[in-house]
Specification:
By secondary structure, this protein is an alpha+beta fold. It contains 8 helices and 18 strands. Strands 1, 2, 3, 4, 5, 6, 7, 10, 11, 13 and 16 form an 11-stranded mixed beta sheet that branches. A 5-stranded mixed beta sheet has the order 8-18-17-14-15, with no helix packed on it.
Length: 319
């Protein structure tokens, strides 16, 4: 059974032996990087706290923050689930392994409001499994496909929030996905125990908006699994403890490719008019996020052996 750790303004916590309660770990570290640099001390603190149940408190009584903190890198895979690739009008058999970066300032807690900037109209959601790096991965490192988890501390529930009307016309992933609160993480950092990585494909990703399920799939649908993604990143990008790699989202986002005939006709228009026509059509799409929408996102195996928890965030539109 995996172990979950949490962060509040007061410090670090772990699940107590008794369900629904947490114990304080009494560790002095302010950042996830510092915490994971001291894995043996972390493991000892968890074992000691759970044995004595010191600082026992109900989970609902704590205001949880993101278990991943700056300083850190946030790296994300593009179009890594077959269903999302098809929704995007592409062929899963030919889509390449690609990445983009997000600003660490976009990280928010699992219950924090998602702030939609006033100039953004088409706000979208993308539930993702976040891999939290546990040890330095230098450029040139070799990632053993059978033991890729030796580099990874665990997983976290993530939502790659996206401003589509910034992303598409400007082909600007960095800006469109990096506004403050656009990367809610948590509630838990689920630390890998022996054998957990072998169950990675069993992890289920689900996301609902106002109680309506929008995304529901498993990591088995991934095109490029973690070992392959980490090996590709290690060709050019150093990763350090506390960095997070978002591994893509399944189908079901608000954005979908236009019908083929509409796409062909649209290609005949000048770029500015093409985007005006595209977003005029998108204005009829009710799935984009609106003020007051409640988003619930969960990452877990069906038997609960690995359960990174459910984040509940509410959209607020800046005026």
């Amino acid at each position: 059974m995996s172990v979950n750790i949490y962060r509040t303004a007061e410090g670090w916590w772990a699940d107590a032996v008794s369900g629904g309660r947490m114990v304080g770990l009494g560790l002095p570290y302010d950042s996830t990087r510092e915490l994971l640099d001291q894995r043996s001390e972390l493991a000892h603190a968890i074992a000691e706290a759970r044995a004595t149940d010191r600082g026992l408190i109900d989970r609902e009584d704590l205001r949880l923050l993101s278990p991943v903190t700056p300083p850190c890198r946030v790296v994300a895979q593009m179009t890594n689930y077959a269903s999302h690739v098809r929704d995007s009008g592409m062929d899963p058999a030919t889509v390449p392994l690609t990445f983009f970066r997000k600003a660490s300032g976009s990280i928010a807690g699992p219950d924090a409001d998602i702030r939609r900037p006033a100039h953004v109209e088409y706000l979208d959601y993308e539930v993702e499994i976040g891999l939290v790096v546990g040890r330095p991965i230098p450029v040139g490192a070799t990632i053993d496909p059978d033991h890729w988890d030796r580099w990874i501390a665990g997983v976290v529930t993530a939502n790659d929030v996206s401003a589509r009307d910034v992303q598409l016309p400007k082909t600007q992933f960095y800006e469109s996905k990096s506004y403050p609160t656009f990367t809610p993480l948590g509630p838990a950092l689920t630390l890998f125990e022996p054998g957990d990585a072998q169950r990675f494909r069993d992890l289920r990703l689900s996301l609902s908006v106002n109680g309506e399920t929008r995304q529901d799939s498993s990591a088995a649908e991934m095109i490029y699994p973690p070992a392959q993604a980490l090996q590709s990143l290690a060709r050019f990008q150093r990763l350090d403890p506390g960095d997070v790699v978002l591994t893509g989202t399944p189908g079901g986002t608000a954005l979908k490719a236009p019908a083929k005939i509409v796409e062909i006709l649209g290609s005949l228009l000048p770029p500015k008019r093409r985007w005006q026509a595209f977003f005029s059509a998108q204005a009829k799409n009710p799935r984009y996020l609106q003020d007051g929408d409640l988003i619930e996102a969960t990452i877990a195996t069906e038997d609960g052996a690995i359960d990174a928890g459910t984040q509940r965030t509410t959209v607020r539109v800046d005026r």
